[in-house]
Amino acid sequence: MTEILAGRLSQPSGRALGIRGRGGWLRNTDVIIALAVLALILTAALAPQLITTADPDAVAPAEAFQAPSAAHFFGTDESGRDVYTRVVFGAGNSLLIGIAATAVGLGLALILGLLGGLGSRLGDFVSTRIVEVMFALPGLLLALVFIAIAGPGVVTSTVAVGLSTAPGYARIIRSQLRSVRNASYVEAATVLGHSRARIVWQHILPGALSPIFVLGTLGVGQAIVWASSLGFLGLGVAPPAAEWGAMLSSGRTYIDVAWWLTVFPGLAIVATAASFTVLGRALNARTRQEARG
Amino acid sequence: MNAPRILLLPLSIAASAALLAGCTAASEPAAEPVDGGTLVYATGDAEPGCLDPHVGGNYPQGLISTQYLESLVSKDNDGEIIPWLATDWTESEDGLTWDFTLRDDVNFTDGTPFDAEAVKANIEHLKDPDTASSTGYLAVGKIDGIEAVAADQVRFTLSAPDSALLESFSQPWVSIQSPTALERDQATNCESPVGTGPFIVTDWVKQQSVTLERNEDYNSAPADAEHTGAARLDAIEWRFIPDAATRYAALQSGDVDVIDNAQPNNISSAADVATIEELDAPRPGAANRIELNSGKAPFDDIRVREAFIRSVDVNPGIESLFFGTAERSYSVLSSVEAAGTSTPDVFTTDPEAAKTLLDEAGWDTIDSDGYRTKDGERLSLTFPISTNQSIPAEQSLFEQIQASAKDVGFEVILQPTDLSSWYGALFTNEYNLVSAPYTKVGADVLRILYHSDSIIPAPSGYYANLAQLSDPALDAILTTASETSDASERQDLYAEAQSIIVDGFYVLPLYDQQNHYLYSTSVEGFRALPPVAAPTFYDAWLSN
After folding, report:
1. I need a surface site. Which of A50, A86, B134, B385 has the fewest CB within 10 A?
2. Is B414 in Cβ contact with A239 (below 8 Å)?
């Protein structure tokens, strides 16, 4: 996925997303919807009590497997817990994992990318080889290997997802730095006799790292999906904590009797990932539009 | 034109009759078993690490090894011990010497003859610490000496009388393998154990399937089998499909013929499917139960144990999660064990009484998260769950237990984990609660599970007394029971033992070890072999 993104980002034109032609990006309905969804999800994550008053862990075996109704918007699960409440409370865990994993991935990528893009020839050699080794393993497999070593849990699965996204980012950062390093304005600064630190700080980094923010936005959606797949494999949060991937996983057992156990957490994952992606692409297009003047 | 029609009438009647006869023949081909075909079996149990059930000795190994290994004796549907590889046996007056007469016309599939030396080599293999056996090792624990008196005569001398010896011998974990094969290194024997059974292990693709092919020279069916000679199926493909929904979908689509560990909701919906049938065969031995580890705090205090049991009500959960396929058990023993006593009165739910008990035990302060504390320590219980052994419904039940225990002030930490990490938690005593299925033939399972000797790990590292119950009075009763051949006396002793176990609040019984098979109606002659209710496909054939 990140490789594909990398391909997109390195295209000279921002036209691919079709946003420029329709004027300002905030006027785009997709973006407005995405922002609204994200606002709702962020509210759920930060203050779930504003959206629901129920307890996500309150079991009521006698009320198990109730279909969606006025009392339970999204129905009840196998232990009679309110699925709506659990989806709302699950936002925090899922989002936290998504954002933290992206931060971990970008952080690691930044180190590797800087080493490769600005470091010595040896530094470039070492970081490029590390990235290549990491690339050799499919992302999720890398995450699973890490979990196998470190043991399951929220922190490990977050780090694992971060780790597996890092090589993609690292490559993008390196190539950005390399291209900016050879830009004429950097050359001019060098001729003017500015110190190397100043050149890096004032000229290279701002130019090269602006796509990182965009990348991050795109990455969060991806990370949530990945973290959900780990939760789906039973490697995420510990029960009874609500998390979308874990809900999807446990609900799947009952898919023949209670579709609502999988559909609603699934929709939440899709809505979040899609919103982040729409927003990320819009930001990307806008950045490029500005860059082109 | 009436006449011709009338003339035609007898003809058309004859035609219809022929047609009807044709239909009957087509829809009910059950009469004559057909040879040939490959049956696909999908198991939801853990994939064994070793196909030799002597090594370790768990239920998944018993399931598959029943197809290629055989035991000295078996059990019929009435619970009577019947001949298998042994044709006859006598116990000495003092109960310390047993003489077994063996079949003299049976060969292992590698050509080695089955004889007294083979039996001797197998018991020695079980006792060898290098084998790392647990179930089989415990089952033959009282055998001190084995003597091959003649090719078809073997004599066991025991350290103490063993009223459960025949039952122990009927189990797949004490099955008899080729001594020639046992001499190979363990890794090789694990890949391709050699027995006398109706099928032969020919291939094992890890994480995928084991191929079992018909033993053409088979002649040692147990006394209750439907036919003699070789099996009817050409082969069995034994697939590992750990995911329950996938397994059921595979059965529905006709991709597989038989599945085990069927999910309650699937069993319930399969009842309406004409092409799928169910076989419910509860496993013998212990009921599924939660053990309370009395070997360490806080459950070393009986009041805390009682408080835990009083704080949870599992009945509504069992009802809704199991869709009516499982019945609540109030006994330590499986419902198929005649010696089991059911004591619903001991397991009543009373959260208020639980709170009082915890106050008395000193857990009388409550922290900001609502959990009880004592001397600054939280009343916290670690509960490792094997996701291979506990089906999703059971895991959900544990979550419900976690929620209701929280209301009283217990923090239950559920740790869903794979089988090896789960064993790891048990070996290192890092658990307060655990649900560990244990299958053994007969009430002597109580001795395995609750005698203080069982706190000492078997060579595999496993110890069966997970409640870490250590009570000299109970030990004495269980030892006496295992040495008493008088049936009614044994029954009384086992009743007494069970009351010590349940009154001490060491266990919370849940339900029988669920053992539901779902199979396609095209599979005929499939049954569960009575000793441990493992499937047997010796008589089975495919009608399509």
Report:
1. A50
2. yes
B207: left (phi over 0), alpha (psi -120 to 50) or beta: left
Q: How far is CA A190 from the centre of its chain?
A: 37
Decide if A253 and B393 are in contact by the 8 Å CB cutoff.
Answer: yes
Q: What percent of chain A has pLDDT over 90?
A: 20
Closest of B151, B162, B166, B146 to residue B83, by C-alpha: B166
pLDDT digits (tens, 9 = 90+) for B275-327: 999 999 989 999 999 999 999 999 999 999 999 999 999 999 999 999 989 99
Reported confidence tier of residue B181, pLDDT bands at 50, 70, 90 = very high
User: Does A250 reach chain B within 8 Å, measured CB to CB?
Assistant: yes
Helix (H, G, I), strand (E, B) or coil at B417: strand
Q: Which conformational region is residue A209 in: left (phi greater than 0), alpha (psi within -120 to 50 degrees), or beta? A: alpha
Q: What percent of chain B is modeled with pLDDT above 90?
A: 81
Which chain B residue has its CA at the smallest distance from A241's CA? B399
Angle at B481 between CA B477 and CA B484, to 5 degrees: 135
Q: Which residues numbered 371-390 in B keep a CB inside 8 Å of some CB on A?
A: 387
Distance CA B26, CA B15 (A): 16
Do residue B403 and residue A57 have CB atoms under 8 angstroms apart? yes
Within B322-418, where are the H helices?
351-360, 392-408
Q: How open is the CA angle B445-B448-B450, to the nearest 5 degrees?
A: 100
Query: By the CB < 8 Å criterion, does A259 face chain B?
Result: no
pLDDT for the residue numbered B8: 44
pLDDT in tens, B469-484: 999 999 999 999 999 9
User: The tokens of A95 are what?
Assistant: 């989002």
Q: Which tokens sit at B505?
A: 């609040």
Nearest CA in chain B to A58: B403
B61 CB-contact burial (10 Å; exposed 0-12 / middle 13-18 / buried 19+): buried
Question: To 5 degrees, how large is the angle CA B179–CA B180–CA B186?
Answer: 85
Q: Does A256 touch chain B (CB under 8 A)?
A: yes
Cα separation, B180 vs B194, in Å, equals 9
DSSP, collapsed to helix, strand or coil, labels residue B171 as: coil
Whether B395 sits inside 8 A of A238 (CB atoms) is: no
Tell me which of A8-17, A79-88, B393-402 is least confident.
A8-17
Q: Write down the pLDDT at residue A26.
A: 59
Report DSSP letters for B260-279, one per residue: SS--HHHHHHHTT-TTEEEE
Nearest CB neighbour to B400, from listed A61, A234, A253: A61
User: Which residues on neighbouring strands pair with residue B240, listed in sequence order?
Assistant: B43
Residue A137 pLDDT greater than 90, yes or no: no
Where do we find the tokens 């930001």? A283
Q: How many CB pairs under 8 A join A and B?
A: 66
Does residue B245 sit at the A interface (CB-CB below 8 Å)? Answer: yes
Q: Is the Cβ of B402 closer than 8 Å to some Cβ of chain A?
A: yes
Helix (H) or strand (E) segment spanning residue B202: strand B199-205
Q: Is B183 helix (H, G, I), strand (E, B) or coil?
A: coil
Distance CA A14, CA A260 (A): 40
For chain A, the residue count is 293
* The residue to which tokens 């916290």 are assigned: B380
What does the pLDDT read at residue B51?
Answer: 97
Closest residue by Cα to residue A112 from A96, A128, A100: A128
How many other CB atoms are there within 10 angstroms of residue B230's CB atom?
17
**A79 vs B396: CB contact, 8 Å cut-off?**
yes
